[in-house]
Every structure is written in C-alpha cells, then in structure tokens.
C-alpha cells in the first residue's frame, strides 16, 4: 500500500510548492518508498485526516498519521531502517536539526518575503483571501508592500549562503559523497522558490546553484519533474 502525502498546491495542482512537502517527497524517494500525493490547498488543510494537524505535510502510512517534515523523516528512518538512511545515525539527526534551523533563519525569510506575491497570484480566490489575512497579520503590512526592496536585499541573501557555498568546494552534498535529509532541507526551500517564482534567487555561476541542479536530478529527476516558474 502506498503512503499518502498531503501536498500543498495552488490553482495548478501540478505545481506543488511547499518547501516542507518537498523535503518529504525527497525523503520518501530516498527510501525507495511508494507514495501518492493528495493535492491540498491552504483552506483544505483543516479537513486533512479529520483535522489531524493544522499544518502539512501530513502522511498516512497504513494506520499511522504523522505531521511535520522532520518528524516524518524520523518516522521513515525508524520504521524502514533497512532502506537507505536519511541521517546516517544519531550524529546525522543532530546535524540535520542544525541545518533545519540554519535554513529557517537564513534561507526561508528572504524567499518568503520576496516571493510573497508570486505565491498569492498562484492561489484560488478562497485561498488568496486566507493567505492575505494570515500573511498581513504576520508581516503587519499590506501584502503588496512585503516584497518591496527585494533587489536591494538579494546580495545579502546570496552572501549569507557562504557557509554552504564554501563547504560544497570540498564535497558534492551537505551529507557528504551522497545526499542525506540535510540536503533535502535546503533543497526544499530553494525548490519552493523555483516552483513558485521566476525571480533569480541564485546566480548561475554559484556553486550553490550547481548543487541545487544536482539535487533536481536525484531520484529520477523528481525535483526537475516540475518546471521552473516562468
């Protein structure tokens, strides 16, 4: 039986964009597990598995329901230990926790503010109303004002990727010779940007972009199967 993954979408169900859902998809593929995605817009989340979680991703594996991307990765690791590891042991789990915090603090904020209107424009009207209400409360300003000045902040964003950029001079993946869940954490954020917005977050000659392109081709091109936003 396939694992069910509730996957965040806008008007176009073929363009799922949640960074956290992308982490889980890559983790499931890494483990070689069969899964089916259930397109889920923002306003449908409260009904997922009879209100099992206020957030997605959510997976159902038989009778087990798990929410939160990191919790799902841990569940997959411990439930399917004989399949390829997502962490490489306890040290890898701890390292992935650090990478997740770094990504939340360094990568997510610039993408979230810079691509805000791109996200809004790809939603159905009912989800636009929800998105506007929740995001204007979060940012304390009209939605249209949030991305203003993103070009002036772009170089700072790229500079803040220096730890990842310099590390990739020594190894092809964050996980070392092969990818681990820590790679999927950062990949999910950049895939979010790629799928939802045509804005150039990475320079074409950036080693981070070269790493991202490698990640797009993993698992039979799972990430690349969704075209970049135009």
UniProtKB/TrEMBL annotation:
InterPro entries: Glutathione-S-Trfase_C_sf (IPR036282), Glutathione_S-Trfase_N (IPR004045), GST_UstS-like_C (IPR054416), Thioredoxin-like_sf (IPR036249). This is Glutathione S-transferase. Residues 8-84 form the GST N-terminal domain. The lineage of its organism: Bacteria, Pseudomonadati, Pseudomonadota, Alphaproteobacteria, Hyphomicrobiales. GO terms for biological process: glutathione metabolic process; L-phenylalanine catabolic process. Transmembrane segments: none annotated. One of its GO terms (molecular function) is maleylacetoacetate isomerase activity. Coiled coil: none annotated.
């Amino acid at each position: 039986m396939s694992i069910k993954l509730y996957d965040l979408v806008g008007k176009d169900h073929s363009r799922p964009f949640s960074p956290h859902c992308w982490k889980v998809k890559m983790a499931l593929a890494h483990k070689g597990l069969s899964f089916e995605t259930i397109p889920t817009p923002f306003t449908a989340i409260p009904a997922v598995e009879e209100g099992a979680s206020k957030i997605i991703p959510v997976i159902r594996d038989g009778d087990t329901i798990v929410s939160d991307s990191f919790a799902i990765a841990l569940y997959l690791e411990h439930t399917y230990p004989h399949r390829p590891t997502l962490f490489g042991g306890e040290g890898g789990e701890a390292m992935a926790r650090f990478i997740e915090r770094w990504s939340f603090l360094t990568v997510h904020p610039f993408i979230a503010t810079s691509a805000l209107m791109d996200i809004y424009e790809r939603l159905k009207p009912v989800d636009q109303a929800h998105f506007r209400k929740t995001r204007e409360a979060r940012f304390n300003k009209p939605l249209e004002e949030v991305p203003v000045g993103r070009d002036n902040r772009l170089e700072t964003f790229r500079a803040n990727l220096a730890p990842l950029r310099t590390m990739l001079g020594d190894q092809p993946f964050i996980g070392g010779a092969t990818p681990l869940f820590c790679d999927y954490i950062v990949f999910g954020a950049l895939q979010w940007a790629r799928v939802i917005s045509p804005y150039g977050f990475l320079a074409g000659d950036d080693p981070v972009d070269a790493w991202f392109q490698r990640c797009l081709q993993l698992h039979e091109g799972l990430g690349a199967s969704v075209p970049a936003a135009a």
